[in-house]
Design goal:
The protein is of the alpha/beta class and about 375 residues long. The chain has two domains: about 5-185 and about 360-384, Rossmann fold (3-Layer(aba) Sandwich); about 200-355, Rossmann fold (3-Layer(aba) Sandwich), CATH 3.40.50.2000. The protein has 16 helices and 13 strands. α4 (about 80-90) packs parallel to α5 and α10 (about 265-270) packs across α12 (about 295-300). The model has no long low-confidence stretch (mean pLDDT about 95).
Length: about 375
């Protein structure tokens, strides 16, 4: 049994990927978590680091420092990073699991000083995370690329969420990554029969403008009677969430409904819906290669699934016979695909989801992260 430090500059109580990592590692190791808040996982010690508070003056200073190439100065001046650099040596860990690029440099630098290996988990492709935003491309992209080039070679192992992102990291930085998906925990739920009158669609997640969720409202509107859509959204962008609510209010078969706790999502979807919907334009690299939590939650809810031709989502849906992949990313394309669907096909896809739920779950993915961590620990032992 080793002592693992899980580092993530995020709200650990609501970060599903990090929580699944910690839960998996607790099976075999002692775990200490370091982040913005306590994950409240039994047996896991916790240390807090401050959340960032970045006003306009700070952003101006940061942009100027990055333009001058002072990438380490920017990174290590962050209060959360400074707190982590002070806390990590006191934990006496055997391995650091660093989540996302903001945690990478401090983990690698501290790991070198302590002679402990670092496993890096890239949740997305950080060098192109917000490439659809000009300000981010001009200021932050060079900073992220610089940190990746200098610190990725210092990790003992790397994981990420899907094959497309793993391939991008390898092509750009020469680092191989093991794929550990965002699969949800296995849920023992029934396969329900579709409602005789209406095919009930659902989309859940964050209200983020770049996802253009209004296009799914347009899909339901075009499908008309016999179809309904509920958007179960967390209001990440309050103004966009309000606008979506207004748009839905003018559509007879669309509603915005309250979000539910992460652990309650599969059971809630299973009880109330027939089909999970996600039409995501490839407006950025990460949107193109998205393989999000919600797809796996649809599976655990035993729903049929309808997606656009996003490579990772489409491959999973086709491989397991879970539903519809539209020919293109247009509203018309999704409407054409769904208009050909009847209740018997939905029943077949829900049965397929029931089979897939036993393979596509967090418990199966836990074995992957455990194998990566154990190999990194073994390599560190051999070197010592």
């Amino acid at each position: 049994m080793a002592h693992i430090l899980a580092l993530s500059f995020s709200a650990l109580s609501s970060d599903p990927r990090v929580r699944r990592q910690i839960t998996a590692l607790r099976r075999r190791h002692t775990v200490t978590a370091l982040g913005w808040d306590d994950p409240n996982i039994a047996g896991v010690a916790f240390h807090a680091c401050p959340r960032p508070r970045r006003g306009v003056p700070h952003k101006i200073r940061t942009a100027f420092a990055i333009a001058c190439g002072r990438h380490d100065a920017v990174h290590f001046a962050d209060p959360g990073v400074r707190a982590a650099a002070a806390i990590i040596p006191r934990v006496a860990c055997d391995l650091i699991l660093a989540n996302d690029v903001p945690a990478l440099p401090v983990a690698v630098r501290t790991g070198r000083a302590l002679v402990v290996p670092v496993v890096f988990d890239a949740h997305e492709y950080a060098p192109r995370e917000w490439e659809d935003v000009l300000r981010w491309r001009l200021v932050m992209q060079p900073h992220i690329v610089d940190l990746c080039r200098r610190y990725l070679p210092g990790v003992a192992a790397m994981t990420t969420v899907c094959a497309g992102i793993a391939e991008a990291y390898h092509a750009e930085f020469g680092v191989a990554a093991t794929v550990v998906t965002n699969a949800a925990p296995y849920a023992d739920l029934p396969v329900r029969t579709a409602d005789a009158a209406t095919i009930r669609m659902v989309h859940h997640g964050a209200a983020i403008p770049s996802r253009r969720l209004e296009r799914m409202i347009a899909v339901a509107e075009r499908l008309g009677p016999g179809w309904s859509l509920d958007l179960m959204l967390v209001p990440n962008d309050a103004a966009y969430h309000r606008w979506l609510a207004e748009r839905a209010a003018g559509t007879a078969n669309v509603r915005l409904v309250p979000a539910v706790r992460l652990d309650d999502i599969p059971a809630t979807l299973n009880a109330g819906y027939d089909l999970g919907l996600y039409l995501l334009e490839p407006a950025s690299f990460n949107n193109r290669f998205a393989l999000p939590n919600k797809i796996f939650e649809f599976v655990q809810a035993r729903l049929a699934i309808a997606v656009g031709p996003s490579p990772e989502m489409a491959t999973l849906v086709r491989a397991h016979g879970l539903g519809v992949v539209a020919d293109d990313f247009s509203v018309d394309g999704m409407v054409r695909s769904l208009a050909a669907v009847d209740r018997s096909r939905i029943a077949g896809w829900r049965t397929a989801a029931n089979r897939a739920a036993r393979m596509l779950n967090a418990e199966a993915e836990a074995e992957r992260i455990l194998a990566v961590v154990d190999a990194a620990l073994a390599g560190s032992t051999r070197k010592g």
